[in-house]
């Protein structure tokens, strides 16, 4: 199996038909070239190997890594506690396929937002149920059997968040305006850069990797800039007291493993990357 400097790693992608999974698939060849082979897996759909937890793994190949981008997101009737169960299922699958590590999609939502960039050393303090479910997933993985588990605290993925959904519909984008006159600022990552991070981690010496890793562009992005870069008008409303002006991840650890372009968080670049990836793997 692959190690840094060895053959290109083989990476199995769980959640390949979800929003983030489709974008990563659409960006894969352009972002990674021949640096890795992606094996997309989903319960149904075209262009993926069909598999779900509890089924035999005979049709799945041996792999270096599993990228578990599946999970339950907020919505009526959805059981967010399933995220921990799915993480354990990914660990079990990794064992069956000989993987050295499993990359689990956690979230910036586990942090209590603040004015400063949020480092991995800040204890989880989620203000909402989704972040609490991801924090519980991380706790379960601390002592989970199987391959090395790496929790990726991912920022907003361009093309997969609510802002981009409004942009895609062609709507006027309504955003909070804060006392400084600005719109919400968030850590984003483009699908191409997320693919590059997955490859870099999958090819690295496993023992050198941290168990927790923030994944985002080096600098956060103003949501108004994203909407304008996509050619959509913006309407502002006064931010309510509960609104959060800034959620920015400290990416110092990531920069040591997979340095991203300093302009990776530019609004124009994120929009272009999203649209290219979506065109390659449409829903």
Automatic annotation (TrEMBL):
A Pfam family assignment: Epimerase
Spans traversing the lipid bilayer: none
UniProt xrefs under SUPFAM superfamilies: NAD(P)-binding Rossmann-fold domains (SSF51735)
Gene3D superfamilies: NAD(P)-binding Rossmann-like Domain
NAD-dependent epimerase/dehydratase domain residues: 80-215
Name used for this protein in its record: NAD dependent epimerase/dehydratase family protein
UniProt organism field: Roseivivax jejudonensis
């Amino acid at each position: 199996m692959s190690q840094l400097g060895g053959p290109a790693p083989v990476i199995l992608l769980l959640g390949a038909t979800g929003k983030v999974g489709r974008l990563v698939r659409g960006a894969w060849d352009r972002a990674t070239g021949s640096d890795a082979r992606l094996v997309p897996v989903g319960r149904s759909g075209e262009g993926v190997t069909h598999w779900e937890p509890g089924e035999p793994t005979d049709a799945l190949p041996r792999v270096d890594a599993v990228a578990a981008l599946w999970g339950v997101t907020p919505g009526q009737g959805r059981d967010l506690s399933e995220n921990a169960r799915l993480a354990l299922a990914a660990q079990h699958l990794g064992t069956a396929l000989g993987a050295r590590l499993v990359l689990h999609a956690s979230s910036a939502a586990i942090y209590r937002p603040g004015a400063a960039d949020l480092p991995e050393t800040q204890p989880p303090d989620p203000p909402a149920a989704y972040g609490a479910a991801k924090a519980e997933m991380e706790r379960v993985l601390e002592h989970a059997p199987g391959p090395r588990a790496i929790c990726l605290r991912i920022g907003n993925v361009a093309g997969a968040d609510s802002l981009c959904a409004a942009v895609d519909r062609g709507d006027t984008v309504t955003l909070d305006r804060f006392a400084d006159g600005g719109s919400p600022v968030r850590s984003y990552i483009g699908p191409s850069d997320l693919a590059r991070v997955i490859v870099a981690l999958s090819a690295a010496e496993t023992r050198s990797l941290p168990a927790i890793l923030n994944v985002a562009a080096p600098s956060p992005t103003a949501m108004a800039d994203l909407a304008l870069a996509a050619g959509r008008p913006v309407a502002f409303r006064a931010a309510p007291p509960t609104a959060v002006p800034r959620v920015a991840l400290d990416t110092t650890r990531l920069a040591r493993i997979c340095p991203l372009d300093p302009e990776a968080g530019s609004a124009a670049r994120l929009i272009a990357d999203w649209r290219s990836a979506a065109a390659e793997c449409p829903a």
